[in-house]
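Recap from last week: sequence in, structure out.
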Amino acid sequence: MMWTPSTLLLPSIFITILSADSFSLSKVPNYLTGKIASDERVVFFPTVANKINITHWSVPIHGWIFEPELESRKRRVAIKGLGKLFQVNDSEEKRLLKRRLMPFTVDNQSMKYVNIKLGNGSGIHRLPRSRKDGHFTSQLTLHDDELHGNDEGIMHYNAVDRERTFEGSIHLLPSTGVSIISDIDDTVKITNYLSKKEFYKNTFLREFQEVPGMKELFHKCKSEYDSCSIHYVSASPYQLFEELHSFFERAGFPSATFHLKRIRVKDKTLLQLFADPKDYKLRQIEPLLRNFPQRKFILIGDSGEKDPEVYVELYRRYPDQIEKIWIRNVNEANATRMEGVDPGRWKYFNDGFDLMDQVV
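Predicted structure tokens:
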């Protein structure tokens, strides 16, 4: 699913009120020392590391530092304005709207750096300073001895902070195996993107609901395929990451990495929500294919937007790596959208149970 202008008609009140990023002289020491202020939070996004030689790994770190501004005026006004737009009718809808809207109303902290400690050793790593949207990224090169994954091959790390725990995770992915690259909306989570009214409600006013059978499908893939990994590539913004991550954990989905869109409501990066979905997804997925040339890939999406066209193009470019393409058919799509792909390698489905016999 792709967020487009016709779908995401944000009212002017939303754009003008949100993300008034602030700088306080009282926080100058934090900018110099890397200490996380008591009113700031750090969120790390799960990433995937790849081997670059026999002994070393390329380890990406991606995080976001911000002030929640839980009781800010701009947040109250935004909730009131969007409540009217979405016709919020009861306290439960208002509670969910307030929670889902919060990440869009934070004060992003720029020019801040965070120190992290990986696993049981390797010392302290200072990360690059955050950008205007509060995001910071780094590509560490680490030796095998510095990386200690659990039984799933996932290594956890923490931001250096005496009072609180801000934890991140890195998926240490072997060079061979099977990787699942999956969309989120209308693929594993019910969004009803084709109905604007339902899209709004399912995104902001309702508890998320899983597409039946997808959790079971992913677990079967994990048990049947060697070194199977899952990577969510979606046009949803990172502001929805915590809600999505919590939903997948509660529903019992396997652990995965997340590759979402970076936007900042107050500047031109907001337009990234409306960018061409084909170009965006190709740019997100191709690095995974290039970093793991010996792995086989299963691509999962839906027919509501351009997933079929994106996956057909990827199959054309990487025919030896793309093992299967599974498309959830939400609008009676026909076979012409998969033209050019070996008929034995793709399948339309309604829910995850339809694909159980394809996991071989």
